[in-house]
Amino acid sequence: MSTMPKKNPLTVSRVVSLVLAYLSLCVAGGVVSSVLLMPGVFAANRVAQAIVPSLQVEGIDFDVTSLPQKSKIYAQDGTTQIAEFYEDNRIVVPIKDVSLTMRQAVVAREDRRFFEHSGVDVQGVLRAFVSNYLKDTNQGGSSLTQQYVKNVLITTAERDNDPIAQYHASEDTYARKIREMLIAVQMEKKYSKLEILQGYLNIAQFGANRLYGVETAAQYYFGVSAKDLNLVQSATIAAITKNPQNYDPSIEANQKEAQKQRNIVLDLMWEQGFIKDKSEYETARNTPIADTLSIHPMTSGCVNAGDYAFFCDYVTHKILNSEEFGKTQAAREQLLKEGGLSIVTTLDVDANKLLMETARNTIPPTDPTGFEIMMASVKPGTGEVLGFGTNRYYAVGDTGDDQTKTSMNYMVDQVDGGGSGFPVGSSIKPFNMVAWLQAGRSVNENLQTSTAYTTNEFACDNYNGKSTMYYGTTESWKVTNADGGNVNPESPLNGLVRSHNTTQASMGAVIGLCRVADAFTAVGYHDAATGETIDKNETVYSPSMMIGTVNVSPLTMANMYATLGADGVECTPIALKKVTRKTGEEIAVPKANCHQAIDKDIAQTVAYVLNQGTIRADGAGQFAKLPSGRKTFAKTGTNETTYMATGGFIPNEIATFVLMGDVQAPYQNQVANVAINGVYRSYWDGGTIAAPAWKAFMDAYADKKGMGTDVGKDYGNAASKYTTSTGGVTSIQGVTSSGSTGRLSSGNTNSNSTGTTTQGTTGDENDDNTTSGQ
What we know:
alpha+beta, 18 strands
């Protein structure tokens, strides 16, 4: 029994064969063949409509809403924009947010039968072939849908850094055209015309320098949103995409041609009935293009962030270094530049503004000394970095001999775009007191002090089962106070109030260096270059670290003071509060991990002593006393004649650290016998340069936030637990000192130890020109 032959179904291969046959005949026979095949060509639209939507292109997402777009970084208020990042400058908007005239202009220019065909405008293709082969022109004939497909293929290839795919997406061959046609047919089956038009308007290039998407173009050329584009503006933008490099009207040399191309669009809109009023058409056509422009420069990256630039740089490094944003740094960078992220940071606009102003007022960028000033602020108990201050302007690349610019954010660690850290002098001493109190000691004990210690006096063998121990040697460490002398005996309280190095050394000899290292680590110390805690850094782990011979960033120091200002709660500094994808999905951000690092009473006792140092006549911290009358908790510091510092806090509100000196050549360009900001001194220290900057900022910030003058706690009650002296080793809360021979004096003995020859680190700390008690 015979059967009827089966009717061959329409397949992708048949369509390909049809198109290839048509193209071959067009090439071979020119217009004659084209005319002969016209019935088949017109039927191709019906063929395309009948294809089963099964065509797939592996690895390509043609979702009209899924396009690379720029990310924006905001201050903590969520509205103040700090910066934006993009590879392609694009803001994706829905079609409803594009003006009707803009939609009409691009359809008139690119694809007049867009709303009639099924992805491939066969009449347009025929017209292009006739023109190309008969008149030797170069018309494209591609529909808007095909152009969208081409743009997606190119964008995907660029995103994947695939040069072969880039070549095939843009090569001038029939194979590429056929591929685009077939995908375009499938696109038309999956998406509506308005969805495809939306995709095209968002992906197309509308200017030189990688300016993409109608919303970005509207903002760049005219300072308006795409939904507000008028007739002239719409025609201008629609004309650009044919040749973005040569028709970009923001380039003055292009404006004559850009106006000509704009008028071509207006002519097409008039011919196609999109413009109904002839006078409107003629007025638009006669308007000089230069008169319509209001150029808003592109602002990608931190270099365009102004005084937010250093904080922007810090945020960028945090994103690139955090696995929350991708498995590799390349993936994180791609997410930042293409993910359309909304990034809300911890930056306090008021704090950052005042920090920058204070830094430049203290040492102008053009000051002949070339000294840098670096300031960082943290909110206690949260880890939130509030801002940075410096007397430099942010730049990228080689700044040559321009001392006013730098690409380095010296306020932060090396991994976050900063340097290898700084010695901070006596500003480290409050944390020696933390160690002292943790060892169960009293602030009023009488300590026998000396100008020389053998380093093995600071040994801490068998301390808390630590694997890393400090044993010291028989070498002598020479240590003196600012005037080169010594006070003996002296209590830890007076030693910190007066900032005496000899008393700090005696404290270390009593409790052992391991306790000091642990205290530093507990409040947040780590090496700026390596990230290591102090007990793992042999170059720092020595008795002289007690007077500031460390490698620490200003931000880390601000955070250490924030621990004191938060009653002993230490947090990891954070820059990000909330990061949202363009879909609305939140990305987890690095946590502050706040925890009670040291006992609350210990933190408050140290704060009490700091305050005493600002109000007592012999206090080294009196130079930092806030002029408003607010209670002051601060400590100055000086590292020989290289770096000057001041750190302190307003409890639970803000902690700030200030450091200044010549970052590039601290020993060649010392802070002595120079005029800074027009004021000459034979010797500058933390009290005479860093402290004024610190208190100027802190008072200005407190005023701005309406804190009033009644701020700061009375920590006397907490301190009373640690102010009982028995004339010897004092045990508090059941804790006793251990690990060293110690240097204690019972009662009011006054026996000075004789100094010995210094070997190794001198640790000579000239702090605040303090002479009291000597």
